[in-house]
Automatic annotation (TrEMBL):
The keyword Nuclease does not apply. GO terms for molecular function: electron transfer activity; flavin adenine dinucleotide binding; succinate dehydrogenase (quinone) activity. It is a peripheral membrane protein. The active site is at 330 (proton acceptor). InterPro entries: FAD-dep_OxRdtase_2_FAD-bd (IPR003953), FAD/NAD-bd_sf (IPR036188), Fum_R/Succ_DH_flav-like_C_sf (IPR037099), Fum_Rdtase/Succ_DH_flav-like_C (IPR015939), SdhA/FrdA/AprA (IPR030664), Succ_DH/Fum_Rdt_flav_su (IPR011280), Succ_DH/fumarate_Rdtase_cat_sf (IPR027477). GO terms for biological process: anaerobic respiration. GO terms for cellular component: plasma membrane. It is found in: Cell membrane. Residues 503-635 form the Fumarate reductase/succinate dehydrogenase flavoprotein-like C-terminal domain. Residues 36-441 form the FAD-dependent oxidoreductase 2 FAD-binding domain. This is succinate dehydrogenase.
Length: 636
């Protein structure tokens, strides 16, 4: 199969405008005849569902949470980027495009990345009009701060709860469409498979999580907005329910998976404190604007932080990356923390953390200023740890966070299955091998509000005069039966180990061999180990209860079955990429001082995987750089 990215002709700054000028239109009467299923209700899903409904399409929106506003977008803290240059510090659309392309280590499409930057400014205006209470300067203009990987201030924020404020705005728009009966909202419904008829996505098979009932839903197009898959590591900053099942089922139905091993490790999470822990808590990267990261120069220093004098502290990010300091990109900051921890300078209960210190900022600006910027984050930290971070440093540690990889999509955000779209974090489109901070809320919102509503018409225009298969079509019965067979198979095993136990084992393998650093020997070993876990899972997992009821153990087991298969693909992808780029750090390819060595001659492509009966076939989307030539990615 040929990969057609559908990048428009013209200059970089004209491509999106050219695309819109040539795209097809559908009149309002015909839109009412077309049904679209949106899976997910975060910023991408809610934005898409509300906007498409406003345009006149008939929308059904599904989420596994009990309310659409419980989507994980609510957890984003630090801010959302936009090239408005309010600070007059040299920012521009081009600068933001370049920062994002460089931040992703030149492993993303120029056209998609430029569009992200181009649409950032109108998105902020869009949210302001929706009532998002962004922070403002004394004179009333919107405030900005910096995030990692840039030397300008372009991040708009609402204290440390930006995601929450944006999701409330999106939820308000979605609620308006629900009340107008233009969107049917189905919470506590989990999509278990995709129905493909004559090569096109035509519906989904869904489990009602409250009753266990398996249901069929037909549509003219299906949009996946289901978020990332970093829960494959088990311990992550993601909510416990976050999973990759929808995109994995789509992959097995024919949607190609791109760059699955590109997963981001966030440098500022609360450290793991025990084996019993089920997730990790994110502390916003925005804290690195005013906080300074350090460890004691002396190994295994048992002194309290306040007792270690300045001359005996190692501000290692400032030492190694003087141009960017504590605002080095996430992948670099995480690896630097790991290097210090592994060298015996870690702090905390398990010696697996470093300090994030606000002493200097409080002395310079005063506590009220820091409290105004980050107050809710300090409150959250104290509630969890019992430590007042105004008086002593926070302890932070790297943690699995964002998925740059996901379903392969073209410029229109359509997967390799016609009629199946992937938006937000569940696609691979804009971030390359590493996402810059505050670009996540940006991408999800732009995909849902601005891009998909302008691209989906091109496909649906061709569906108007076609037959619309209903749920009585034989393929719906066939896929539903496959879903029921898998559920019954898991329930009938009645083994001795819980899904959580298997997930804990899988997470340890993935964190050790396919997280912050990888090597050939470790990846080969991991693939063997994961295949053993898979075999044991299908022989010895124990799921209590039955399918005809609310059954969270069954939910976890079904999702874990997909995680196990995805983990094999992630390791396979990391193994074939013999270079270090962004979050993919192969230990065999580094400089003497531990920096990544990229190989543009052999790996200037997006790895795109086709599922083939349990095996994976590699396709390559070659990346062409017409406007920016890849350079050595340096932040020193």
């Amino acid at each position: 199969m040929m990969l057609d990215s559908k990048i428009p002709e013209g200059k970089l700054e004209d491509k999106w405008r050219n695309y819109q000028a040539q795209s097809h239109l559908i009149n309002p009467a015909n839109k009412k005849k077309l049904n679209i299923i949106v899976v997910g209700s975060g910023l991408a899903g809610a934005g898409a569902a509300a906007t498409l409904a406003e345009m006149g399409y008939v929308i059904q929106c599904f989420c596994y949470q009990d309310s659409a506003r419980r989507a994980h977008s609510v957890a984003a803290q630090g801010g959302i980027n936009a090239a408005k240059n309010y600070q007059h510090d040299g920012d521009s659309v081009w600068r933001m495009f370049y920062d994002t392309l460089k931040g992703g280590d030149f492993r993303s499409r120029e056209a998609n990345t430029y569009r992200l930057a181009e649409l950032s400014a109108p998105l902020i205006d869009h949210f302001v009009q929706q009532g998002v209470p962004f922070a403002r300067e004394y004179g009333g203009v919107l405030a900005n701060r910096s995030f990692g990987g840039v030397q300008v201030q372009r991040t708009f924020y609402a204290r440390g709860q930006t995601g929450q404020q944006l999701i409330l705005a999106a939820y308000s728009q979605l609620s308006k469409m629900i009340r107008a009966k233009k969107v049917e909202m189905l919470p506590r419904h989990e999509v278990l498979d995709i129905v493909v008829i004559n090569g096109k996505a035509k519906g989904v098979i869904v489990r009602d999580l409250a009753t266990g009932e398996i249901k069929r839903f037909a549509a003219d197009a299906v949009v996946l907005a289901t978020g990332g898959y970093s829960r494959v590591f088990r311990l992550s900053t993601l909510a416990i329910g976050c999973n990759g099942s929808a995109i994995w089922k789509a992959h097995k139905r024919g949607a190609f998976f791109a760059a699955p091993s590109f997963t981001q490790i966030h440098p500022t999470a609360l450290p793991q404190t025990s084996e019993a822990q089920s997730k990790l808590t994110l502390m916003s990267e925005s804290l690195r604007n005013d906080g300074r990261i350090w460890v004691a120069k002396k190994m295994d220093d048992e002194r309290k932080a306040k007792d270690i004098p300045e001359e005996e502290r190692d501000y290692y990010l400032e030492r190694r990356y003087p141009s960017f300091g504590n605002l080095a990109p996430r992948d670099i900051a995480s690896r630097a923390a790991k290097e210090r921890i592994d060298a015996g300078h870690g702090v905390g209960q398990l010696k697996n953390a470093v300090y994030l210190d606000f002493k200097h900022a409080i002395n310079k600006f005063g506590k009220p200023v820091i409290e105004d910027k980050y107050g809710n984050l300090f409150t959250m930290y104290e509630k969890i740890t019992g430590i007042n971070a105004y008086q002593e440093p926070m302890k932070i540690s790297p943690a699995a966070h964002f998925s740059m990889g996901g379903l392969w999509v073209d410029y229109e955000l359509m997967t390799t299955i016609p009629g199946l779209y992937a938006i937000g974090e569940c696609n691979y489109s804009d971030h390359g091998a590493n996402r810059l901070g505050a670009n996540s809320l940006l991408q999800t919102s732009i995909d849902g509000y601005f891009i998909l509503p302008n691209t989906i018409n091109n496909y649906l225009e061709g569906e108007i005069g076609q037959k619309h298969p209903g749920v009585e079509h034989p393929e719906f019965a066939h896929v539903e039966n496959e879903v029921k067979v898998q559920i019954n198979k898991i329930l009938e095993i009645n083994g001795n180990r819980t899904a959580d136990d298997f997930h804990r084992e899988l997470g340890k393998v993935m964190w050790q061999e396919c997280a912050m650093s990888r090597n050939r020997k470790g990846l080969e070993k991991a693939i063997v180990q994961i295949k053993v876990i898979k075999e044991q899972f299908w022989k010895d997992v124990k799921v209590t209860g039955n399918n005809n009821e609310m059954n969270t153990e069954l939910e976890k087991a079904l999702r874990l079955a997909d995680f196990i298969e995805l983990a094999i693909l992630m390791c396979t992808d990391a193994l074939q990429r013999d270079e270090s780029c962004g979050a993919h750090f192969r230990e065999e390819y580094q400089t003497e001082d531990g920096e990544a060595v990229r190989n543009d001659d052999d790996f200037k492509y997006v790895s795109v995987w086709e599922y083939n009966e349990g095996h994976f076939k590699l396709h390559k989307e070659l990346l062409e750089f017409e406007y920016v030539q890849p350079t050595v990615r340096s932040y020193k």
